[in-house]
Write a structure and sequence with these properties.
Strand content: under 5%
Oligomer: single chain
Distance between the termini: 59 Å
Radius of gyration: 20 Å
Order of helices and strands: HHHHHHHHHHHHHHHH
Structural class: mainly alpha
Largest sheet: none
C-alpha cells in the first residue's frame, strides 16, 4: 500500500470516540449528509440551475465548484495521505469513497487530504446563500458544510484536518470567483491563467480525479464564451420545457460518457497510464463543452416548434 501517513495526535482518538457514539442510526445520518455533496448530486443540481432556473448564477457556481474540485486532487497528489482507516485499526471504514471496491486499495479509494466532499459542500451552500437572499440558505451555509465535514470524519474516510482543509478550499474558491466577476475587466485572461496554473498537475498527478477535473475545467471555460457569443439561451419557468431540458440533458450526460469510451479498450481506460488519463481528461472536456455550450442550442429550436 502506497501513500504517506501523518496526523495530529488528537485526530485518531477523536475519530474513534465519534464512531463509538454513532450507533446504527448515527451511521445512517452520516451517510445521508455525505450524499448531499456527492459529485452526482452536485452535478444534477448545477445542471438544473443552469439549464432551467438561472443561467448566469449557474455558471458562477459551476466555476466555483470546478475550481475547488481541481485544487483538491492537486493537493491530494502532493501530500499522498493515506485514509485514516488504512492507518488505524481501531477506525472503521463505514462507507468507503468507492463502495463495492477493495477498501484498502488506495489507487481506487484515493488519497485523504483534503476532503473533496467538504469542499463541495462549502461551495454549494455558501454560493447559494450569496446569490439568494433567504434566511434558510444563510443558516444552511453555516450548518450544512459542518455536518458534511463531520460525516466524512464519522465514516472513517477523512481526518479532521482533511475536512477543515477541504472547507477552506471551498470557501476560498467562492471568494476568488466572486472577486473575479466583480473586479476583473478581462475574465477570459483570468480563466486562461487559472487553467494554466491548474495544468501543473499533468507533471505529477496520476489519479483519475485530477484528470476528470482538469478536463471539466477546460470544458467549462471553453463552453462559457461559446454560449455567450453563439447560443445566448434563456431560462424558462414553464414546467414541460424545464422537465425536457433537464431529462434530455441528464440522458445526454450518461450517453456521451458511454459513447466516448467506446473507441477504447476497457483495460486501457483502467490502466492508469498517462495516455489513458489524458483520454479521460479529453472525454470530460468534450462532455462538459457539449452539455454547457452546445446542447442549449436545442432550446431555441424547441421554442420555435412550440
Amino acid at each position: 500500500m502506497g501513500g504517506n501517513t501523518f496526523f495530529i495526535g488528537f485526530e485518531p482518538a477523536f475519530m474513534e470516540w465519534l464512531q463509538s457514539h454513532l450507533g446504527s442510526w448515527g451511521e445512517k445520518v452520516a451517510v445521508f449528509f455525505t450524499m448531499l455533496s456527492e459529485p452526482i448530486v452536485v452535478i444534477a443540481l448545477m445542471c438544473f440551475l443552469y439549464w432551467c432556473i438561472d443561467k448566469e448564477r449557474g455558471k458562477k457556481i459551476a466555476e466555483m465548484l470546478v475550481l475547488a474540485t481541481v485544487v483538491c486532487p492537486l493537493l491530494k497528489n502532493t501530500f499522498l495521505r493515506r485514509r485514516p482507516y488504512m492507518v488505524h485499526q481501531e477506525i472503521r471504514c463505514i462507507r468507503p469513497p468507492e463502495p463495492g471496491q477493495p477498501v484498502n486499495d488506495i489507487a481506487i479509494q484515493g488519497y485523504s487530504f483534503p476532503s473533496a466532499h467538504s469542499s463541495n459542500a462549502a461551495v454549494m451552500f455558501t454560493s447559494f446563500s450569496k446569490f439568494y437572499d433567504k434566511k434558510i440558505l444563510k443558516v444552511l451555509a453555516i450548518v450544512a458544510p459542518i455536518l458534511v465535514a463531520l460525516s466524512r470524519v464519522a465514516l472513517g474516510v477523512h481526518y479532521p484536518t482533511d475536512v477543515l482543509t477541504g472547507l477552506a478550499v471551498g470557501y476560498i474558491s467562492v471568494f476568488l470567483i466572486l472577486l473575479m466577476h466583480s473586479k476583473a475587466k478581462n475574465k477570459t485572461l483570468l480563466r486562461i491563467l487559472i487553467l494554466a496554473i491548474s495544468s501543473v498537475g499533468f507533471i505529477y498527478c496520476r489519479t483519475e480525479d485530477y484528470y476528470t477535473c482538469i478536463g471539466t475545467l477546460a470544458g467549462l471555460y471553453a463552453a462559457i464564451p461559446f454560449e455567450e457569443h453563439f447560443v445566448k439561451f434563456e431560462n424558462t419557468r414553464k414546467p414541460v420545457p424545464m422537465l425536457l431540458r433537464y431529462a434530455i440533458g441528464l440522458g445526454l450526460y450518461v450517453g456521451l460518457g458511454a459513447l466516448f469510451k467506446m473507441p477504447f479498450d476497457k483495460a486501457f481506460l483502467e490502466s492508469g497510464t498517462l495516455a489513458a488519463l489524458s483520454v479521460r481528461a479529453a472525454r470530460y472536456f468534450l462532455i462538459v463543452f457539449l452539455l454547457i455550450g452546445v446542447y442549449p442550442l436545442s432550446f431555441k429550436l424547441w421554442e420555435k416548434k412550440s
